[in-house]
């Protein structure tokens, strides 16, 4: 069995365990440790990593999901969708060798397979897409920010540009006009 197939099965098992945890109120990592999972959800090492990771970061994952969902409190979401979203957001943020696009695609497939609503996969895709765009824009901002070393010795930051709102967009200083006429 290929590594990809093992990961797909691991995600399926992890979602089942996370779902069972929500329904029973037993912590997911405890379900795994004590072997209290259905036979089809027997966890391989990657599934165990996912379940334990989601459990350890659940509050942060829920906060990110809640901020990205429009008009949906996380506790109002269907349990399966919530489990799929937590798993995907964990992979997007903490599993370096899984590209965001793969985490999203796998989550959409899980939502199609397990989701109780006809639109579960669209709902999951929408929230994860928003999170991915937000993550990309945060990375762009971080990449553009000056490093601490680069800013050492600089007494004062350059003044910010003042937005003109288009009022001065056609304004050219006199020197610019004469320089254009010379050429």
UniProtKB/TrEMBL annotation:
Please list the residue ranges that the record marks as compositionally biased, kind Acidic residues. Answer: 139-151
Specify whether Mitochondrion is a keyword of the entry.
Answer: no
The domain of life for this entry's organism is: Bacteria
Q: Name one GO biological process term.
A: DNA-templated transcription termination
Segments of this protein annotated with the region Disordered: 139-183
Enumerate the spans annotated as NusB/RsmB/TIM44 domain: 10-133
Assigned keywords, A-Z = RNA-binding, Transcription, Transcription antitermination, Transcription regulation
InterPro entries according to UniProt: NusB-like_sf (IPR035926), NusB_fam (IPR011605), NusB_RsmB_TIM44 (IPR006027)
Q: Name one GO molecular function term.
A: RNA binding
Q: A cellular component term (GO) from this record?
A: cytosol
Q: What is the similarity comment for this entry?
A: Belongs to the NusB family.
Function in brief? Involved in transcription antitermination. Required for transcription of ribosomal RNA (rRNA) genes. Binds specifically to the boxA antiterminator sequence of the ribosomal RNA (rrn) operons.
Q: What is this protein called?
A: Transcription antitermination protein NusB
């Amino acid at each position: 069995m290929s590594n990809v197939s093992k990961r797909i099965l691991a995600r399926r098992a992890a979602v089942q365990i996370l779902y069972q945890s929500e329904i029973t109120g037993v912590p997911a990592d405890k379900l795994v440790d004590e072997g209290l999972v259905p036979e089809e959800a027997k966890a391989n090492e990657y599934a165990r990593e996912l379940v334990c990771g989601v459990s350890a970061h659940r509050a942060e994952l829920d906060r990110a999901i809640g901020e990205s969902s429009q008009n949906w409190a996380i506790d109002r979401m269907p349990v399966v969708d919530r489990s799929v979203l937590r798993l995907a957001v964990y992979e997007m943020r903490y599993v370096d060798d899984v590209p965001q696009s793969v985490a999203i695609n796998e989550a959409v497939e899980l939502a199609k397979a397990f989701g109780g609503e006809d639109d579960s996969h669209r709902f999951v895709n929408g929230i994860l897409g928003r999170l991915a765009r937000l993550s990309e824009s945060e990375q762009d901002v971080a990449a553009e920010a000056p490093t601490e070393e680069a800013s050492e010795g600089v007494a004062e930051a350059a003044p910010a540009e003042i937005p003109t709102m288009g009022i001065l967009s056609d304004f050219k200083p006199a020197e610019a006009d004469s320089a254009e006429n010379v050429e």
